[in-house]
Amino acid sequence: MENDDPDESRAARIKAAAKRLFIEKGYDGTTMQAIADDSAVNKALLHYYFQSKDRLFLLIFREEMAELSDPLSTIWQEGERSLLARLEDWIDSQSAFIARAPQLPLFIISEMARNPELIKGLLAEFLPPPQLLRLESEEASAAGGSGLPVLVELVGMVFSLVFFPALAAPMIQHLLGVDSPLLGELMASQARLAKELVRRRLGGLTPP
After folding, report:
1. Model-level pTM greater than 0.85?
2. Does residue 154 contact residue 140 with C-beta atoms inside 8 Å?
3. Cβ(91)–Cβ(194) under 8 Å?
4. What percent of the chain has pLDDT over 90?
5. Exposure winner among 66, 171, 172, 190, fewest CB in 10 A?
6. Is-contact 169 102, C-beta < 8 A?
């Protein structure tokens, strides 16, 4: 089977298996042998394509972060649009991504705990620079308030509302007795709530 597969097909199968195992078991719980077994190739061939577990992990992580962060980068670069509109688009894009890949937030958090400096460096490749967020804070601060910069407050609120249900899915399902479809509805409801609170905090339009 291995000799009959085109290189591209074999590499794609390996990457798909590695992604599934890394997200399910984390870096430490995944071995090259498990990836080889799951992708139906021998370990020597796996090393031929991807050299090491570290190299394969970084490739998978970068691809996932690029898919997660590309909409955010685009939204933040569209400087002619209001901060409210960009925050609402960000909520929509992150909610849609989590609906497609609900395990990803926990994967990122787990890997940050395992190797925080490495993951912070990788995140810096994809997330908007802090300088840009500080500039946006000037617009957000016009909405009033004191203490935390308004944008910091809003971003923290959005992360907690949009990402937390995915992180806490097993606990929510157990405590509330909800199944996966209801959990999906809860995540959608949290996204709507995040947009409503952002509008109110920035003094935007009252949602219909």
Report:
1. no
2. yes
3. yes
4. 9
5. 171
6. yes
Q: How many CB atoms lie within 10 A of CB 100?
A: 8
Distances in Å between the Cα of 135 and the Cα atoms of 73, 89, 130, 153 are 15, 19, 9, 15
Q: What's the CA gap between 45 and 51, in Å, rounded?
A: 9
Q: Identify the CA nearest to 45 among candidates 56, 54, 36.
A: 36
- What CA–CA distance (Å, rounded) separates 183 from 180? 5
What pLDDT, in 10s, does the model give residues 127-167? 665 555 554 555 555 545 444 567 777 878 888 888 887 77
Fold designation for 53-201: Tetracycline Repressor; domain 2 (1.10.357)
Distance of CA 25 to the CA centre of its chain: 17
